[in-house]
TrEMBL record:
It comes from Corallococcus carmarthensis. Residues 55-141 form the DyP dimeric alpha+beta barrel domain. It comes from the Bacteria. Keywords: Iron, Metal-binding, Oxidoreductase, Peroxidase. The lineage of its organism: Bacteria, Pseudomonadati, Myxococcota, Myxococcia, Myxococcales. One of its GO terms (cellular component) is cytosol. Pfam families: DyP_N (PF21105). This is Dyp-type peroxidase. The keyword Metal-binding applies. Its cofactor is heme b. The keyword RNA-binding does not apply. PROSITE patterns: DYP_PEROXIDASE. One of its GO terms (molecular function) is heme binding. InterPro entries: Dimeric_a/b-barrel, DyP_N, Dyp_peroxidase.
Length: 437
């Protein structure tokens, strides 16, 4: 059984809808102050075991970078026991992730990707009042702690449409984790072994993956990849308008690229027209598979949702080894409907990818499923929405009598920065606070 009272709520519990969120980056300048912060956070962070507690709706989570663990004085042998991708950091892994050109670390928003980022605090709530309550707990933990400085903040909020900036319903898919008691959104998918997301438990291979040492530090923790992604909404709209034959055709092309209509209704269930009622129904909008659509006349193999989670496709034997928990929160103002010119505002998503295996989960999906196409026989074609395009991208989808082919895909999503983090269990936070090295 999962030790839910020791696992941070942010690992297992889906974000609320609607939501407001704040991300705060901290730098530890004094080791003693950093350890005291860990002790205080040990009692401020929300545990997954208490969904009905007074603080459950204003969850506070804490994660540390490799440089943060160094700043706390974690012993060298413990540091060496962390996953090597984590020790390198996201900026060093940029080439493997497709973060080049405009998305390369040299263009990232400071201090993202630098050794100054030590701690990531995340506060998440259904409304501003309860968010402020979560932030108050964080501020209380920081109060009078000289030697720990807040160096960056990103506020996020649900858009008035309830969708992400490109206009698609968000937050639909969530896998069930064995032992969590939290149902998944796809009834066709059996719960995944808990070791895929929480360290110290059996995973889909049947074994228990190596975890940071000592056990009190690694057990009930997980890895998190935070990404700030800027979305070029006007460019996406312009591309659809130029490629489509009508306003209706724009919506068809958008749905084919995503794999869903903007309402959230999946093409797998309504391939010819949108069905807003279906899109809004959480009990049905993720209840589908691809076994009856191998060619992709309904859901193109190259579409975003089919790439990110092929479900029961021919690669299904390995899909479960690459599943992740994905969380997204929107930032920036909405671009008004119909506007085709970029207004220069920063808008997009703060993404968090949660899993016990940075390499075979986050990095594999990013490199092999989103930025390559061999696994589905798509050659070098990238994800039409999230791929690292350079203006020469191609998106094709089956259509009778001949397939339809879109060319010249530009870069729609630009990486503004990111961090690889370790999200420890609550006992581990207290262990970090009690270090005496």
């Amino acid at each position: 059984m999962l030790e839910l009272d020791d696992i941070q709520s942010g690992v297992l519990r889906p974000r609320p809808s609607p939501y407001v969120a704040t991300y705060i980056l901290l730098r530890i300048d004094d080791r003693s102050a950093g350890r005291e912060l860990m002790r205080r956070l040990g009692s401020a962070v929300t545990a997954a075991a208490h969904p009905n507690s007074p603080i459950a709706d204003c969850g506070l989570s804490v994660a540390l970078t490799y440089h943060g663990l160094e700043a706390l004085g974690v012993p060298e042998d413990s540091l060496d026991s962390f996953a090597w991708e984590f020790r390198q950091g996201m900026a060093a892994r940029a080439k493997a992730l497709g973060d080049d050109g405009e998305s390369s670390p040299e263009h990232w928003e400071p201090p993202l990707g630098t050794s100054d980022v030590h701690v990531v605090l995340t506060a998440l709530s259904p409304d501003q009042v309860r968010l402020e309550a979560a932030l108050a707990r964080a501020h209380a933990a920081l109060r009078e702690l000289g030697g720990v400085e807040a160096i960056w903040r990103q506020d996020c909020h649900a858009l008035s449409t309830g969708k992400e900036p490109f206009g698609f319903k968000d937050g639909i898919s969530h896998p069930a984790v064995e032992g969590s008691g939290i149902p998944g959104s796809n009834p066709h998918e059996a719960p995944l072994r808990s070791g895929e997301f929480v360290l110290g438990y059996p995973d889909e291979t049947g074994g228990v993956s190596p975890m940071p040492q000592p056990d009190v530090l690694g057990r009930n923790g997980t890895y998190v990849a935070f990404r700030k992604l800027h979305q070029r909404v006007a460019a996406f709209r312009q591309y659809l308008k130029n490629a489509a034959s009508s306003t209706e055709d724009e919506e068809v092309l958008a749905a084919k690229m995503m794999g869903r209509w903007r309402s959230g209704a999946p093409l797998a269930l309504c391939p010819h027209h949108d069905a807003p009622g279906l899109g809004a129904d959480a009990s049905r909008n993720n209840d589908f598979h691809y076994s009856d659509d191998p060619t992709g006349y309904k859901t193109p193999p190259a579409s975003h949702i089919r790439r990110a989670n092929p479900r029961d496709a021919s690669v299904a034997g390995v899909v479960r080894l690459h599943r992740m928990i994905r969380r997204g929160t929107a930032y920036g103002p909405e671009l008004p409907d119909g506007v085709l010119e970029d207004d220069g505002a920063e808008r997009g998503l703060m993404f968090a990818f949660i899993g016990a295996h940075l390499g075979r989960q986050f990095e594999f999906v990013q490199a092999e499923w989103l930025n390559a196409g061999e696994f589905l026989g798509l050659g070098e074609a990238k994800d039409p929405l999230a791929g690292a395009h350079d203006g020469t991208g191609v998106f094709s989808f089956p259509k009778r009598p001949i397939p339809r082919r879109l060319q010249g895909l530009p870069l729609f999503v630009v990486t503004r920065g990111g961090e690889y983090c370790f999200m420890p269990g609550l006992r581990a936070l207290r262990w970090l606070g009690d270090l005496r090295t």
